Amino acid sequence: MATDSGADLLIPQDLLPGDGRFGCGPSKVPATAVARLAEAAPLLLGTSHRQPPVKQLVGRLRSGISQLFSLPEGYEVALGNGGASLFWDLATLCLIERRSQHLVFGEFSSKFAQIVQNAPHLAPPEVIESEPGTCPQPHSDEDLDAYCLTHNETSTGVQGEVRRIGSPGQLVLVDGTSAAGGLPLDAGSVDAYYFSPQKCFASDGGLWVALLSPAAIERSDRLGSTSRWIPSSLDLNLALQNSRQDQTYNTPAVATLFLFAQQVEWILDQGGLSWAAARCRQSASIVYGWADRADYATPFVQDPNRRSQVVATIDLSPEVPAGAVSKVLRRNGIVDIDGYRKLGRNQLRIGLFPAVEPEDAARLTRAIDWVAERIGVADHA
After folding, report:
1. Read out DSSP for 17-59?
2. Were both Cys, which of 54, 106, 346, 358 would link to 155 (CB 3.0–4.6 Å)?
3. ω before 231 within 30° of 0 (cis)?
4. Strands, E, within 47-131: which ranges?
Protein backbone atom coordinates (compact mmCIF):
# COMPACT_ATOMS: atom_id res chain seq x y z
CA MET A 1 0.00 0.00 0.00
CA ALA A 2 1.23 3.51 -0.79
CA THR A 3 2.02 5.46 2.34
CA ASP A 4 4.37 8.29 1.34
CA SER A 5 2.89 11.71 0.65
CA GLY A 6 5.69 12.39 -1.79
CA ALA A 7 6.99 15.45 0.02
CA ASP A 8 10.60 14.24 0.20
CA LEU A 9 10.74 11.51 -2.43
CA LEU A 10 14.02 11.16 -4.29
CA ILE A 11 13.68 9.16 -7.49
CA PRO A 12 16.58 6.71 -8.02
CA GLN A 13 19.13 8.09 -10.42
CA ASP A 14 18.86 5.15 -12.80
CA LEU A 15 15.19 5.98 -13.40
CA LEU A 16 15.73 9.65 -14.24
CA PRO A 17 15.86 10.89 -17.85
CA GLY A 18 19.11 12.38 -19.08
CA ASP A 19 17.13 15.58 -19.68
CA GLY A 20 13.96 16.20 -17.72
CA ARG A 21 12.32 18.79 -19.98
CA PHE A 22 9.07 17.49 -21.47
CA GLY A 23 7.15 20.75 -21.82
CA CYS A 24 4.72 21.36 -24.67
CA GLY A 25 6.09 24.83 -25.27
CA PRO A 26 8.47 26.27 -24.45
CA SER A 27 10.14 22.94 -25.08
CA LYS A 28 13.56 21.45 -24.54
CA VAL A 29 16.40 23.48 -26.06
CA PRO A 30 19.45 21.27 -26.72
CA ALA A 31 22.59 22.23 -24.82
CA THR A 32 24.64 21.94 -28.00
CA ALA A 33 22.55 24.65 -29.68
CA VAL A 34 22.97 26.95 -26.67
CA ALA A 35 26.76 26.41 -26.77
CA ARG A 36 26.84 27.31 -30.46
CA LEU A 37 24.80 30.41 -29.73
CA ALA A 38 27.41 31.46 -27.15
CA GLU A 39 30.15 30.97 -29.75
CA ALA A 40 28.28 33.04 -32.34
CA ALA A 41 27.18 35.75 -29.89
CA PRO A 42 29.91 38.33 -30.60
CA LEU A 43 28.84 38.60 -34.26
CA LEU A 44 25.09 38.25 -33.76
CA LEU A 45 23.69 39.26 -30.38
CA GLY A 46 23.38 42.99 -29.90
CA THR A 47 23.86 43.74 -33.60
CA SER A 48 21.59 45.24 -36.25
CA HIS A 49 19.08 42.85 -37.79
CA ARG A 50 19.49 44.65 -41.13
CA GLN A 51 23.20 43.91 -41.43
CA PRO A 52 24.75 40.86 -43.17
CA PRO A 53 25.32 38.55 -40.15
CA VAL A 54 21.65 38.52 -39.10
CA LYS A 55 20.30 38.68 -42.66
CA GLN A 56 22.44 35.67 -43.54
CA LEU A 57 21.00 33.84 -40.53
CA VAL A 58 17.44 34.60 -41.66
CA GLY A 59 18.37 33.45 -45.16
CA ARG A 60 19.73 30.18 -43.76
CA LEU A 61 16.54 29.70 -41.79
CA ARG A 62 14.20 30.36 -44.72
CA SER A 63 16.22 28.08 -46.99
CA GLY A 64 16.28 25.31 -44.39
CA ILE A 65 12.53 25.52 -43.85
CA SER A 66 11.89 25.37 -47.59
CA GLN A 67 14.04 22.25 -47.82
CA LEU A 68 12.58 20.63 -44.71
CA PHE A 69 9.00 20.93 -45.96
CA SER A 70 9.85 20.28 -49.64
CA LEU A 71 7.93 23.39 -50.66
CA PRO A 72 6.31 23.23 -54.10
CA GLU A 73 7.19 25.71 -56.84
CA GLY A 74 5.89 29.18 -56.06
CA TYR A 75 5.51 28.65 -52.30
CA GLU A 76 7.36 31.12 -50.07
CA VAL A 77 8.47 31.31 -46.44
CA ALA A 78 7.43 34.44 -44.55
CA LEU A 79 8.20 35.30 -40.95
CA GLY A 80 7.50 38.01 -38.43
CA ASN A 81 7.31 38.86 -34.76
CA GLY A 82 4.47 38.05 -32.40
CA GLY A 83 4.10 34.27 -32.50
CA ALA A 84 1.42 32.09 -34.06
CA SER A 85 -1.26 33.79 -31.94
CA LEU A 86 -0.57 37.02 -33.79
CA PHE A 87 -0.93 35.17 -37.09
CA TRP A 88 -4.61 34.55 -36.24
CA ASP A 89 -5.15 38.32 -36.28
CA LEU A 90 -3.07 38.64 -39.44
CA ALA A 91 -5.04 35.91 -41.20
CA THR A 92 -8.31 37.56 -40.19
CA LEU A 93 -7.21 40.68 -42.04
CA CYS A 94 -5.09 39.34 -44.89
CA LEU A 95 -6.26 35.81 -45.77
CA ILE A 96 -9.96 35.48 -44.94
CA GLU A 97 -11.92 37.49 -47.48
CA ARG A 98 -15.50 37.13 -46.28
CA ARG A 99 -16.35 33.87 -44.48
CA SER A 100 -14.38 30.95 -43.11
CA GLN A 101 -14.94 27.51 -41.59
CA HIS A 102 -13.20 26.50 -38.35
CA LEU A 103 -12.71 23.09 -36.78
CA VAL A 104 -12.74 23.57 -33.00
CA PHE A 105 -11.56 20.75 -30.74
CA GLY A 106 -9.56 22.42 -28.01
CA GLU A 107 -8.34 25.69 -26.56
CA PHE A 108 -6.18 26.92 -29.40
CA SER A 109 -8.45 26.04 -32.29
CA SER A 110 -11.26 27.79 -30.43
CA LYS A 111 -9.24 31.00 -30.01
CA PHE A 112 -8.84 31.51 -33.77
CA ALA A 113 -12.56 30.91 -34.32
CA GLN A 114 -13.40 33.46 -31.62
CA ILE A 115 -11.13 36.09 -33.19
CA VAL A 116 -12.90 35.65 -36.52
CA GLN A 117 -16.33 35.75 -34.86
CA ASN A 118 -15.40 39.12 -33.36
CA ALA A 119 -14.09 40.60 -36.62
CA PRO A 120 -16.55 43.30 -37.77
CA HIS A 121 -15.49 43.11 -41.41
CA LEU A 122 -16.21 39.37 -41.79
CA ALA A 123 -19.40 37.32 -41.92
CA PRO A 124 -19.94 34.96 -38.96
CA PRO A 125 -17.79 31.87 -39.53
CA GLU A 126 -19.04 28.32 -39.69
CA VAL A 127 -17.75 26.57 -36.57
CA ILE A 128 -17.68 22.77 -36.43
CA GLU A 129 -16.91 21.71 -32.88
CA SER A 130 -16.30 18.43 -31.12
CA GLU A 131 -15.56 17.44 -27.54
CA PRO A 132 -11.97 17.63 -26.23
CA GLY A 133 -10.21 14.39 -27.06
CA THR A 134 -11.94 14.07 -30.44
CA CYS A 135 -11.57 15.80 -33.81
CA PRO A 136 -14.41 17.11 -36.01
CA GLN A 137 -14.50 16.71 -39.76
CA PRO A 138 -14.73 19.57 -42.29
CA HIS A 139 -17.10 19.74 -45.22
CA SER A 140 -16.89 21.83 -48.35
CA ASP A 141 -19.20 24.81 -48.86
CA GLU A 142 -19.10 27.17 -51.83
CA ASP A 143 -20.11 30.05 -49.56
CA LEU A 144 -16.70 29.93 -47.86
CA ASP A 145 -13.35 31.33 -48.94
CA ALA A 146 -11.15 29.77 -46.24
CA TYR A 147 -11.00 26.54 -44.25
CA CYS A 148 -9.16 26.84 -40.92
CA LEU A 149 -7.65 23.62 -39.58
CA THR A 150 -5.34 22.68 -36.72
CA HIS A 151 -2.70 20.04 -37.37
CA ASN A 152 -2.21 19.26 -33.69
CA GLU A 153 -4.37 20.59 -30.83
CA THR A 154 -1.73 21.25 -28.18
CA SER A 155 -4.20 21.54 -25.32
CA THR A 156 -5.73 18.06 -25.73
CA GLY A 157 -3.17 15.98 -27.62
CA VAL A 158 -5.45 15.37 -30.61
CA GLN A 159 -3.85 15.11 -34.03
CA GLY A 160 -5.96 16.58 -36.82
CA GLU A 161 -6.05 15.73 -40.50
CA VAL A 162 -4.51 18.10 -43.04
CA ARG A 163 -5.84 17.91 -46.58
CA ARG A 164 -7.15 20.02 -49.43
CA ILE A 165 -10.82 20.95 -48.99
CA GLY A 166 -13.20 22.72 -51.31
CA SER A 167 -12.60 24.15 -54.76
CA PRO A 168 -9.92 26.35 -56.37
CA GLY A 169 -10.01 29.81 -54.87
CA GLN A 170 -10.84 28.54 -51.38
CA LEU A 171 -7.79 28.68 -49.11
CA VAL A 172 -6.77 26.04 -46.58
CA LEU A 173 -5.16 27.68 -43.52
CA VAL A 174 -3.51 25.34 -41.03
CA ASP A 175 -2.21 26.05 -37.54
CA GLY A 176 0.87 23.86 -37.31
CA THR A 177 2.29 25.31 -34.11
CA SER A 178 2.98 22.09 -32.20
CA ALA A 179 3.06 19.88 -35.30
CA ALA A 180 5.50 21.60 -37.66
CA GLY A 181 8.78 19.71 -37.73
CA GLY A 182 7.41 16.66 -35.93
CA LEU A 183 4.49 15.43 -38.05
CA PRO A 184 4.41 14.58 -41.77
CA LEU A 185 3.09 17.32 -44.06
CA ASP A 186 2.22 17.57 -47.73
CA ALA A 187 2.80 21.30 -48.10
CA GLY A 188 1.02 21.34 -51.44
CA SER A 189 -2.26 20.47 -49.71
CA VAL A 190 -2.36 23.78 -47.81
CA ASP A 191 -2.18 27.48 -48.63
CA ALA A 192 -0.88 28.82 -45.34
CA TYR A 193 0.81 26.57 -42.81
CA TYR A 194 1.86 28.70 -39.87
CA PHE A 195 3.69 27.97 -36.65
CA SER A 196 6.11 29.27 -34.05
CA PRO A 197 9.47 27.78 -33.01
CA GLN A 198 9.09 26.99 -29.30
CA LYS A 199 7.90 23.41 -29.78
CA CYS A 200 9.33 21.04 -32.41
CA PHE A 201 11.97 23.60 -33.34
CA ALA A 202 13.50 23.81 -29.85
CA SER A 203 13.73 27.58 -29.69
CA ASP A 204 11.94 30.40 -27.88
CA GLY A 205 8.57 31.91 -28.81
CA GLY A 206 7.65 35.32 -30.16
CA LEU A 207 8.14 34.55 -33.85
CA TRP A 208 5.71 33.29 -36.49
CA VAL A 209 6.60 31.50 -39.71
CA ALA A 210 4.20 30.77 -42.55
CA LEU A 211 4.52 28.56 -45.63
CA LEU A 212 2.48 30.41 -48.24
CA SER A 213 1.07 29.16 -51.53
CA PRO A 214 0.78 31.39 -54.61
CA ALA A 215 -2.98 31.54 -53.96
CA ALA A 216 -2.45 32.79 -50.40
CA ILE A 217 0.07 35.38 -51.61
CA GLU A 218 -2.37 36.57 -54.27
CA ARG A 219 -5.23 36.78 -51.73
CA SER A 220 -3.10 38.80 -49.33
CA ASP A 221 -1.93 41.14 -52.06
CA ARG A 222 -5.47 41.70 -53.31
CA LEU A 223 -6.97 42.35 -49.88
CA GLY A 224 -4.11 44.67 -49.02
CA SER A 225 -4.78 46.67 -52.19
CA THR A 226 -8.44 47.28 -51.34
CA SER A 227 -9.94 49.68 -48.84
CA ARG A 228 -9.50 47.17 -45.98
CA TRP A 229 -7.34 48.83 -43.33
CA ILE A 230 -4.44 46.65 -42.21
CA PRO A 231 -1.95 47.85 -39.57
CA SER A 232 1.68 47.43 -40.57
CA SER A 233 2.43 44.86 -37.87
CA LEU A 234 -0.39 42.64 -39.24
CA ASP A 235 0.27 43.18 -42.93
CA LEU A 236 1.24 39.88 -44.54
CA ASN A 237 2.40 41.65 -47.70
CA LEU A 238 4.80 43.76 -45.69
CA ALA A 239 6.06 40.73 -43.81
CA LEU A 240 6.61 38.87 -47.08
CA GLN A 241 8.44 41.82 -48.65
CA ASN A 242 10.80 41.91 -45.69
CA SER A 243 11.20 38.14 -45.67
CA ARG A 244 12.31 38.21 -49.29
CA GLN A 245 15.11 40.49 -48.10
CA ASP A 246 15.97 38.03 -45.29
CA GLN A 247 14.75 40.30 -42.53
CA THR A 248 11.69 41.02 -40.43
CA TYR A 249 9.60 44.18 -40.46
CA ASN A 250 10.63 45.05 -36.89
CA THR A 251 13.50 43.88 -34.71
CA PRO A 252 13.45 40.12 -33.99
CA ALA A 253 14.94 38.15 -31.11
CA VAL A 254 18.17 37.09 -32.80
CA ALA A 255 18.83 34.30 -30.29
CA THR A 256 15.45 32.79 -31.20
CA LEU A 257 16.33 32.88 -34.89
CA PHE A 258 19.68 31.22 -34.22
CA LEU A 259 18.28 28.38 -32.11
CA PHE A 260 15.50 27.90 -34.66
CA ALA A 261 17.97 27.60 -37.53
CA GLN A 262 20.11 25.18 -35.52
CA GLN A 263 17.18 22.83 -34.97
CA VAL A 264 16.06 22.98 -38.61
CA GLU A 265 19.57 22.13 -39.79
CA TRP A 266 19.95 19.37 -37.19
CA ILE A 267 16.74 17.72 -38.37
CA LEU A 268 17.87 18.01 -41.99
CA ASP A 269 21.25 16.46 -41.12
CA GLN A 270 19.51 13.51 -39.44
CA GLY A 271 17.32 12.78 -42.45
CA GLY A 272 14.70 15.51 -42.68
CA LEU A 273 11.03 15.62 -41.80
CA SER A 274 10.47 11.88 -42.27
CA TRP A 275 13.23 11.17 -39.75
CA ALA A 276 11.80 13.67 -37.23
CA ALA A 277 8.29 12.23 -37.60
CA ALA A 278 9.58 8.69 -37.07
CA ARG A 279 11.47 9.78 -33.95
CA CYS A 280 8.34 11.38 -32.51
CA ARG A 281 6.31 8.26 -33.33
CA GLN A 282 8.87 6.17 -31.45
CA SER A 283 8.58 8.32 -28.33
CA ALA A 284 4.79 8.39 -28.59
CA SER A 285 4.65 4.60 -28.94
CA ILE A 286 6.64 4.29 -25.72
CA VAL A 287 4.36 6.63 -23.76
CA TYR A 288 1.03 5.33 -25.09
CA GLY A 289 2.21 1.74 -24.71
CA TRP A 290 3.04 2.43 -21.07
CA ALA A 291 -0.34 4.07 -20.47
CA ASP A 292 -2.15 1.12 -22.05
CA ARG A 293 -0.33 -1.29 -19.71
CA ALA A 294 -0.49 0.67 -16.46
CA ASP A 295 -3.69 0.07 -14.51
CA TYR A 296 -3.77 3.66 -13.23
CA ALA A 297 -3.14 5.44 -16.56
CA THR A 298 -5.14 5.72 -19.80
CA PRO A 299 -4.53 7.64 -23.03
CA PHE A 300 -6.99 10.55 -23.01
CA VAL A 301 -7.62 10.35 -26.76
CA GLN A 302 -9.63 7.19 -27.34
CA ASP A 303 -9.09 6.90 -31.09
CA PRO A 304 -5.51 5.64 -31.64
CA ASN A 305 -5.48 7.31 -35.07
CA ARG A 306 -6.08 10.69 -33.43
CA ARG A 307 -3.51 10.37 -30.66
CA SER A 308 -0.89 13.03 -31.14
CA GLN A 309 2.64 11.86 -31.88
CA VAL A 310 4.12 15.05 -30.41
CA VAL A 311 1.87 15.84 -27.40
CA ALA A 312 0.72 12.85 -25.34
CA THR A 313 -2.16 13.39 -22.91
CA ILE A 314 -2.55 10.70 -20.26
CA ASP A 315 -5.40 10.50 -17.73
CA LEU A 316 -4.59 9.12 -14.29
CA SER A 317 -7.01 7.36 -11.98
CA PRO A 318 -8.35 9.47 -9.08
CA GLU A 319 -6.20 7.76 -6.45
CA VAL A 320 -3.07 9.03 -8.24
CA PRO A 321 -3.32 12.84 -8.26
CA ALA A 322 -1.56 14.16 -11.33
CA GLY A 323 -0.64 17.39 -9.55
CA ALA A 324 1.12 15.47 -6.79
CA VAL A 325 2.98 13.32 -9.32
CA SER A 326 4.05 16.41 -11.22
CA LYS A 327 5.33 18.13 -8.06
CA VAL A 328 7.49 15.15 -7.10
CA LEU A 329 8.86 14.90 -10.61
CA ARG A 330 9.66 18.62 -10.70
CA ARG A 331 11.62 18.35 -7.44
CA ASN A 332 13.60 15.60 -9.16
CA GLY A 333 14.34 17.62 -12.30
CA ILE A 334 11.49 16.37 -14.53
CA VAL A 335 9.46 19.42 -15.48
CA ASP A 336 6.38 20.72 -17.29
CA ILE A 337 4.24 17.61 -17.69
CA ASP A 338 1.13 19.14 -16.09
CA GLY A 339 -2.17 18.78 -17.91
CA TYR A 340 -3.62 21.78 -19.69
CA ARG A 341 -5.14 23.89 -16.91
CA LYS A 342 -8.45 24.78 -18.60
CA LEU A 343 -9.19 21.16 -19.42
CA GLY A 344 -9.41 20.48 -15.69
CA ARG A 345 -8.61 16.76 -15.82
CA ASN A 346 -6.43 14.54 -13.62
CA GLN A 347 -3.99 14.38 -16.47
CA LEU A 348 -0.38 14.57 -17.56
CA ARG A 349 0.61 16.23 -20.84
CA ILE A 350 3.99 15.22 -22.24
CA GLY A 351 5.86 16.96 -25.04
CA LEU A 352 7.52 14.43 -27.37
CA PHE A 353 9.13 16.77 -29.88
CA PRO A 354 12.18 15.78 -31.96
CA ALA A 355 14.67 17.16 -29.40
CA VAL A 356 13.39 14.64 -26.80
CA GLU A 357 15.37 11.41 -26.72
CA PRO A 358 13.08 8.37 -26.97
CA GLU A 359 15.07 6.73 -24.18
CA ASP A 360 14.28 9.72 -21.97
CA ALA A 361 10.59 9.18 -22.72
CA ALA A 362 10.97 5.59 -21.56
CA ARG A 363 12.76 6.68 -18.40
CA LEU A 364 10.01 9.19 -17.72
CA THR A 365 7.38 6.44 -17.69
CA ARG A 366 9.47 4.42 -15.23
CA ALA A 367 9.90 7.46 -12.99
CA ILE A 368 6.13 8.07 -13.02
CA ASP A 369 5.52 4.44 -12.06
CA TRP A 370 7.96 4.76 -9.17
CA VAL A 371 6.25 7.91 -7.88
CA ALA A 372 2.74 6.49 -8.34
CA GLU A 373 3.64 3.45 -6.25
CA ARG A 374 4.51 5.73 -3.36
CA ILE A 375 1.79 8.37 -3.47
CA GLY A 376 -1.08 6.42 -5.02
CA VAL A 377 -1.63 2.85 -6.10
CA ALA A 378 0.63 0.05 -4.98
CA ASP A 379 0.34 -2.35 -7.90
CA HIS A 380 0.48 -1.59 -11.59
CA ALA A 381 2.06 -2.92 -14.75
Report:
1. -SS-B--SSS----HHHHHHHHHHHHHHTTS-TTSHHHHHHHH
2. 106
3. no
4. 76-81, 100-104, 126-129
DSSP strand pairing (100-104 vs 126-129): parallel
| pLDDT 10s digits, 21-60 | 999 989 999 999 999 999 999 999 999 999 999 999 999 9
> pLDDT tens-digit profile of 318-347?
999 999 999 999 999 999 999 999 999 999
Largest Cα separation within the chain, whole Å, is 70
Confidence at residue 2, expressed as pLDDT on a 0 to 100 scale = 53
CB atoms within 10 A of CB 46: 8
Q: How far is CA 48 from CA 78, 250, 252, 319, in A?
A: 20, 11, 10, 55
Buried b (16+ CB within 10 A) or exposed e, 73-106: eebbbbbbbbbbbbbbbbbbbbbbbebbbbbbbb
Q: Which fold has domain 31-269?
A: Aspartate Aminotransferase; domain 2 (3.40.640)
Q: Is 13-28+271-375's fold the same as 31-269's?
A: no
Instruction: Name, in order, each residue with C-beta under 8 angstroms of 145's C-beta and a sequence gap of 6 or more.
Output: 96, 97, 98, 99, 100, 169, 170, 171
Q: Which helix (H) or strand (E) holds 99?
A: none
Beta bridge partners of 129: 104
pLDDT digits (tens, 9 = 90+) for 77-133: 999 999 999 999 999 999 999 999 999 999 999 999 999 999 999 999 999 999 999
Give 240-284 pLDDT, tens digit per residue: 999 999 999 999 999 999 999 999 999 999 999 999 999 999 999
CA 165 to chain centre: 22
Cα gap 227→187, rounded to integer Å: 31
- Sign of the torsion formed by the C-alpha atoms of 119, 122, 127 and 133: negative
DSSP code for 250: S
For the segment(s) 13-28+271-375, the CATH number from 3.90.1150.10, 3.40.50.12710, 3.40.50.2300, 3.90.1070.10 is 3.90.1150.10
Domain spans of the chain?
A: 13-28+271-375, 31-269
